C-alpha cells in the first residue's frame, strides 16, 4: 500500500499543477476549488473534514482566495462558530478552467492505453475504492462518499458469462479454498445456459455497482426432476456478490429478481442447493422466504462440506 502511495503521488506530481497546467494553484488549492465548485456552498469545517487539511493552512488559503476575489466568507446565521464559504463568479471560472486542464492532462496520460486497458484500470480503481471504503467503515473510520452508490440489475450482455465463471472461481478460491473443480462446475452451468435456454422460463441477471459488474444470479428450469416437476420447479443458481460490493443489498436484489421472474413464468416453487459454510448467502435466502428442506455431507471442490437444499413455495 505504501509503495503504491509513493508511486501514485509521483505520478500525480508529474502533472505539476502550477507549471504543466499553467495555473497559479497548488494541488491542495486545486482540491479546495474542486470541492467548492461541486458542493456549491459549504463551510470551512466541512472542507477540513473532507480534505484532511490543517485548519491554519486552510484559513490562510481561503484568505488568499478571498483577496483574489475567488471566494466570499461569512459567518453562518444559524451558528456563529461556523464560516460559510462560497465561490464567486471568478472562482467558478477558475475552477472550471482548472478542471478542464486537469481533464486534458489525465486524458494525455491515458492516450497510450488500449480500450481494454482503460476499462481494466477503471474497474480496478473502483474495486480498490470499494474495498478500502468498506474496510474503513468496519474499522470505524470516517469516509464520506459523494452520495449513495448506484445499483443496477440488468440482463447479461456479451462478456458477462465469462465474468461469471472467473469471479465465481476467484472468489470461492480466495475465501474458501475451493479448487478448480468448482470452476469447472460453474463453466458447465454457464455453457449450458449460454448455449441455449428458454427466455420465457429461464433468465440471468448481472448486478452493477457504480457502473461495474458486481454480482450475478441465474434462474433455470430444474432438469434434475422428471418432466412434469421440471415444468413446475425453477432452480436458483450461481448467486454471487463480489467482495468489493458487499453491504449494498445486491444479494437481496438479485434473489428478488429471480423470485419475481419464477413467479411470473408460472413456476410453483423455486429451489436451490448451497453449502452451510456460505453463511451470508443463507441469510439472504432466509430473508426471501426460503426454507431448509435437506442436508447431506459430501466431498467436493477439495473439501468436506455439508450441502443444503432450500425451497420457496411460489
Descriptive report:
With 314 residues, the protein is α+β, with helices and mostly antiparallel strands. It has 2 domains: 2-112, Arc Repressor Mutant, subunit A (Orthogonal Bundle); 151-313, Gcn5-related N-acetyltransferase (GNAT) (Aminopeptidase, 3-Layer(aba) Sandwich). It is 49% helix and 23% strand. It is built from 11 helices and 10 strands. Strands 4-5-6-7-8-10-9 form a 7-stranded mixed β-sheet, sandwiched between helices. Strands 1-3-2 form a 3-stranded antiparallel β-sheet. α7 (160-176) packs antiparallel against α8. The longest helix is centred in the middle third of the chain and has 24 residues, at 115-138. The chain is elongated and about 80 Å long. It starts with a helix and ends with a strand.
The level of helicity is 40-55%
What's the level 1 CATH class of the largest domain? Alpha Beta
Largest sheet at a glance? Answer: 7 strands, mixed
Distance between the first and last residues' Cα = 49 Å
Q: Name the strands of the widest sheet in spatial order.
A: 4-5-6-7-8-10-9
CATH topology of the largest domain: Aminopeptidase
Mind telling me the CATH superfamily name of the largest domain?
Answer: Gcn5-related N-acetyltransferase (GNAT)
Note poorly predicted spans. 140-146
State the shape.
elongated
Number of domains: 2
**Secondary-structure element order, as H and E?**
HHEHHEEHHEHHEEHEHEHEE
In DSSP terms, counting alpha (H) and pi (I) runs of 4 or more, how many helices?
A: 11
Mean pLDDT: 83
Structure classification: alpha+beta
Indicate the CATH architecture of the largest domain: 3-Layer(aba) Sandwich
The tally of strands reads: 10
Radius of gyration: 26 Å
Strand content: 15-25%
